[in-house]
Amino acid sequence: xxxxxxxxxxxxxxxxxxxxxxxxxxxxxxHEEETRMAQIDDHTMCKTYHEASGVTSYLGSMDNVNWxxxxxxxxxxxxxxxxxxSCTVASCKYWAEGRLCVAPSIEVTGALANECQDTNCRxxxxxxxxxxx
Length: 133
What we know:
The structure is a single chain. By secondary structure, the protein is mainly beta. The chain has one domain (about 5-120). Helix content is about 10%, strand content about 25%. It has 2 helices and 10 strands. It has helices spanning about 55-60, 70-75, and strands spanning about 5-10, 15, 20, 25-30, 45, 85, 95, 100, 105-110, 120. The strands form 4 sheets. It has a 3-stranded mixed β-sheet with strand order 1-9-10, with no helix packed on it. The chain has a 3-stranded mixed β-sheet with strand order 5-4-6, with no helix packed on it. Strand 7 and strand 8 (about 100) form a beta hairpin. The chain starts with a strand and ends in a 12-residue tail after the last strand. The model has no long low-confidence stretch (mean pLDDT about 85).
């Protein structure tokens, strides 16, 4: 199974790459509140968010980078840096057993975010009533 194409608008994250790409190797989409199932996209977050606030913040996220090739190749039209996606949002219709996201593409939003709770998976669509087991 292939991971969804990721478009990211979180320009304050260390993994953000020009062209709305994500330079992380893996992203984790989670519920914003651990004890409540997401009902709308605002209840989701990208737990992989790491604030870009200087050189030391970039070093703190280096264990999760997906950069290969030259910088020019990364921004050429048609090139995409799609990380693997782990998702715990079982209330989403795109969630599959094994923490998989089966959407063909996802959008992560949160321009000017300061923390992961300021981000959202805009692709979230509720599958109806789901409870924690």
